[in-house]
Design brief:
Helix 3 crosses helix 4, helix 3 runs parallel beside helix 5 and helix 4 crosses helix 5. It is built from 9 helices and 12 strands. The radius of gyration is 19 Å and the shape is globular. The protein has a domain of about 140 residues: 3-Layer(aba) Sandwich (Rossmann fold), CATH 3.40.50.300. It starts with 8 loop residues before the first strand and ends with a helix. It is of the alpha/beta class.
Length: about 260
């Protein structure tokens, strides 16, 4: 009988804590994502969702815990303030190059064209030739439906177009893992669906994604796992069917009923 190969672990967080002085924002979160997982992180405002996401690539420095990307452990050392910092800047930069991060407010370079925004990191970090980076950028722009905007500047784009360019920029690094921090919350309602359509396409391609979102229908449709954070810890975790239809936690029930 042939053995079914299990997906490899893409990301593992072990007992992550984050404090700001006496304020404990993340309180011992452990989480694992397998290759191809789409994990939606839900919860009320202030529950620690974005902070947790930012701890993964040390945009926020955790106070305690372990971070693994694939089989590689990020070596962390405590600073005098008690926060954990990367022991090796080189290792951190290498791991960041393998993690795509899509921000709430796009974070595009306003003085650079769409093409320049997308090709900068592959040329500088991955040492691709300009021709290779440009060729790849055009393919990715076709994927997000914006190849006609290749020479435009961000200020000439709608919010939805800017966010799709931000996704294209992340994809240009061919990351192992994509992190989305409320990618539609800064958009006008009529622009949300064009961004979600791109993300649905990425999920169907088997991209490994962690998504902080308030888009309930999207989370239900595309997620392999849903994580509900409450006051900095995982209140409940499971399949979309379990959390949306039959949650065990009274807090999750109340949240889901208020977001129907």
């Amino acid at each position: 009988m042939s053995q079914v190969l299990q997906p490899a672990t893409a990301l593992r967080l072990v007992d992550i804590h984050k404090s700001y002085g006496s304020l404990n924002v993340i309180k011992g979160v452990s989480l694992e994502a397998k290759d191809g997982d789409v994990i939606s992180i839900l919860g009320s405002s202030g529950s620690g969702k974005s902070t947790l996401l930012r701890c993964i690539n040390l945009l926020e420095n955790p106070s305690k815990g372990e971070i693994y990307l694939g089989d590689e452990k990020l070596e962390l050392v405590p600073s005098k303030s008690g926060e954990l910092h990367a022991k090796s800047r080189k290792q951190l930069e290498n791991m960041r190059s393998r993690i795509g991060f899509v921000f709430q407010n796009f974070n595009l370079w306003p003085h650079r064209t769409v093409l320049e925004n997308i090709t900068e990191a592959p040329i500088q970090v991955l040492k691709q030739s300009k021709d290779e980076a440009v060729g790849q950028a055009k393919l990715i722009l076709q994927q997000v439906g914006l190849v006609d905007k290749i020479d435009a500047y961000p200020s000439h784009l709608s919010g939805g177009q800017q966010q799709r360019i931000a996704i294209a920029r992340a994809l240009a690094m061919d990351p192992q893992l994509l992190l989305f921090d409320e990618p539609t919350s800064a958009l006008d309602p009529e622009l949300v669906n064009e961004v979600l359509a791109v993300m649905r396409d990425l999920a169907s391609q088997g991209r490994t994604m962690l998504i902080v979102t308030h888009e309930m229908r999207f989370a239900r449709d595309v997620s392999s796992q849903v994580v509900f954070l409450h006051e900095g810890h995982i209140e409940e975790q499971g399949t979309p069917e379990k959390l949306f239809e039959n949650p065990s936690s009274a807090r999750v029930k109340a949240f889901m009923s208020s977001h129907q």
